[in-house]
């Protein structure tokens, strides 16, 4: 997700966000802070906003109805703008990795992926290929934290993952023990329990929850008005609490993939649907595009079958494909758990066939035939 203009653009977790803003305004934000919560809850977006609020040249303040003062940021001063350039992180990481690939072997080994669009704000993503935070990265944080900031009031270090190599975690302990007054360290963790207890005990902890589907739906109504209401309600559920995922969701591709998955499932569960089934699998060709299409179709099929399982097991409130509920209920009446289990195994075979680079359409046809054969 790109840069957002103010804290009010942040979706969900209002209370946690207000508490953080109050702490910044009062000058008592913990210097070492874990932001915990599931992927998509907005941990990174929030960390960037906190960095902006700490370093905004204008230091705007808002009064909350309960009389508390909330820190804010202007979004247009030089510090705000340059910090916001880190908001869309993945392209920056991709560029850093590509630059490292160009280096000589000896330099490559010494170079760790770090992102810095503002001289006083350093982003530390997990370093590929192992996707762990490494010692070289933590060392940069240690030396960085020893020097006073050059342009902003505070130095901010954002670790985007809590998966550390052992020696990196031990080394991080030293800086967490006594961070200088001007330094703030944010650790983003899907599961804070993964962090060493000695790290956790030195940090404040703020937990973000997944955003409920109903709340996501309201956000989509506002920001994706071109989607139909039943599409918004579908996407809000498929995103499973992840705001960025919901806003960036490709509804058209998912709907097309799911339509094919349904043809396949009908072919397998109803008599006389075979022609449609094989006409459909013929549109899946070999090559990269066909693989992508197959992967999307299998993904949609998984989500449909999971929903059928919810219906069979009596938890219909957890349905995600709510817009085709009638069809799912009909399916739940004709197939059982064992059938779904066989279908899932078949899907795994198609996936591993693709990995081994078999002719794709062949394995999909075989799967379709097998599914038709396993009709109850
Ligand atoms: Zn500003």
UniProtKB/TrEMBL annotation:
Signal peptide (from-to): none
Top-level taxon of origin: Bacteria
Pfam families documented for this protein: DNA_pol3_delta2 (PF13177)
Any single GO BP term: DNA-templated DNA replication
Protein name: DNA polymerase III, delta prime subunit
Source organism of this protein record: Terriglobus saanensis (strain ATCC BAA-1853 / DSM 23119 / SP1PR4)
């Amino acid at each position: 997700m790109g840069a957002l203009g103010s804290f009010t653009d942040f979706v969900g977790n209002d209370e946690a966000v207000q508490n953080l803003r109050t702490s910044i305004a009062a000058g008592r934000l913990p210097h070492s802070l874990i932001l915990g919560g599931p992927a998509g809850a907005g941990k990174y977006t929030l960390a960037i906003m906190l960095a902006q609020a700490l370093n905004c040249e204008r230091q705007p303040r808002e009064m909350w109805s309960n009389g508390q003062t909330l820190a804010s940021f202007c979004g247009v001063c030089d510090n705000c703008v340059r910090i916001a350039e880190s908001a869309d992180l993945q392209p920056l990481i991709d560029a850093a990795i590509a630059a490292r690939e160009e280096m000589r072997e000896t330099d490559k080994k010494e170079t760790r992926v770090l992102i810095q669009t503002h001289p006083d704000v350093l982003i530390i993503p997990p370093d590929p290929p192992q996707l762990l935070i490494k010692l070289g990265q933590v060392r940069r944080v240690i030396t960085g934290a020893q020097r006073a900031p050059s342009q902003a009031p505070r130095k901010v270090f954002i670790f985007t993952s809590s998966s550390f190599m052992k020696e990196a975690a031990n080394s991080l302990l030293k800086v967490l023990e006594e961070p200088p007054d001007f330094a703030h360290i944010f650790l983003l963790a899907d599961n804070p329990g993964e962090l060493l207890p000695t790290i956790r005990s030195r940090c404040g902890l703020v937990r973000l929850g997944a955003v409920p589907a109903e709340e996501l739906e309201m956000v989509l109504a506002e920001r994706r008005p071109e989607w139909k209401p039943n599409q918004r309600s579908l996407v809000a559920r498929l995103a499973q609490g992840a705001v960025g995922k919901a806003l960036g969701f490709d509804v058209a591709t998912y709907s097309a993939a799911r339509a094919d998955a349904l043809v396949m499932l009908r072919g397998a569960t109803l008599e006389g649907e075979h022609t449609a089934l094989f006409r459909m699998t013929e549109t899946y060709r070999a090559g990269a595009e066909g693989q992508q299409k197959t992967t999307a179709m299998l993904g949609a099929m998984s989500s449909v079958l999971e929903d059928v399982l919810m219906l069979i097991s009596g938890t219909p409130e957890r349905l995600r494909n709510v817009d085709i509920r009638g069809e799912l209920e009909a399916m739940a009446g004709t197939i059982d758990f064992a059938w779904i289990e066989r279908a899932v195994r078949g899907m795994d075979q198609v996936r591993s066939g693709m990995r081994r680079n078999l002719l794709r359409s062949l394995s999909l046809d075989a799967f379709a035939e097998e599914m038709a054969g396993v009709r109850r």
